[in-house]
Amino acid sequence: MALFFKRLAQSAPVISNAFRGQHQSSLGSFRLPIGSIAAVSGGISFYYYFSSPDVVHLDQINEEAGPKVALNPDKWIEFKLQDTARVSHNTQLFRFSFDPSAKLGLDVASCMLTRAPLGQNAEGKTKYVIRPYTPISDPDSKGYFDLLIKEYPEGKMSQHFASLKPGDVVEVKGPIEKLRYSPNMKKNIGMIAGGTGITPMLQVIEAILRNPDDKTQISLLYANVSPDDILLKQKLDILSASHPNLKVFYTVDNPSRTWRGGKGYISNDMVVKGLPGPGEDTLILVCGPPGMMKHISGDKAKDRSQGELTGILKELGYTEEMVYKF
Fold first, then answer.
1. Which of 155, 203, 206, 305 is the most exposed place for a label (fewest CB within 10 A)?
2. In angstroms, rounded to a whole number, what is the distance separating the alpha carbons of residues 78 and 101?
3. Which strands make up the sheet holding 323-325, listed edge to edge?
4. What pTM does this model have?
């Protein structure tokens, strides 16, 4: 337990107001640093069942020359749950361990697939639910990765995670590459995130801010149901206060009496005022639930390619080359 929190504390000095009180988890009462807590599941809004005679079974990582990589894009690998911590009424932190002499094998901004068995199908073969998640820890962390997972009443995978205890294992495959970020790839990057869709945005934000040679200007519009649902608000506020190239604007559907941010769904006016305008040196990243995606940019195609650009961004003159949907 001490090592678990020592590593969390070393990841950053930021302490969330949400964790200043005493919280209960499998670890007992504690105060939880959020330096490595970035977001939940990468905002990818789908899951699907998987049952195939060609299911790849777990294999050992090949011991070859060069750095070992914990993940494998072609095989399901077991990772052991090291510890958990309750973050909010419906969100938990999960730390999974692996050989500290290996690297995880994730790039910015990529994710991993997790799977859990759901019994058997009519043919007697194992049926799985498979769900993508974006780790919230630094991709260079040695020997562990962290997932922050929001529990949904009807979410088969999130309910599976909620049932896990330290020592249990989860099967993981990856990485699944999304946007391959490179420093200064665009002068201006605008971001529109909804709920758990903050994850890939934070991956890119932190990659930019920790590189003094990256001069990218970042603007984030972050939408949530209520102020209490805003993930990592304090962390984002501190990052924006200490980095002049990061601007953050929040909006919520159900504001509290003391709320001073935006109100309602992300609008044309919010985009015009908060994000860089259309241009060759502008990239807009979008990640959130299906309803938000449809409203802002249109969802991805059925084959998970980018699909047609629609919604607010098209109305405001952005082109498909200027928008990336996670």
1. 305
2. 17
3. 262-263, 246-252, 217-224, 188-194, 282-287, 323-325
4. 0.77
Measured in degrees and rounded to the nearest 5, phi and psi for residue 278 equal: -60, 140
Cα(187)–Cα(282) distance, integer angstroms: 6
DSSP per position, 136-164 = -S-TT-SSEEEEEEE--TT-HHHHHHHH-
The token pair that represents 142 in the structure block: 């040695």
What Rg, from alpha-carbon coordinates, does the chain have? 20
Element (H, E) at 242: helix 233-242
Joined together, the tokens standing for residue 53 give: 């005679």
Backbone angles phi, psi at 263, to 5 degrees: -130, 135
- Tokens 């007992």 — which residue? 28
The reported pLDDT for the residue numbered 259 is 97
| pLDDT tens digits for range 89-120 | 787 889 999 999 999 999 898 999 999 999 89
User: What residues contact 207, with CB distance under 8 A and at least 6 apart?
Assistant: 108, 109, 181, 183, 214
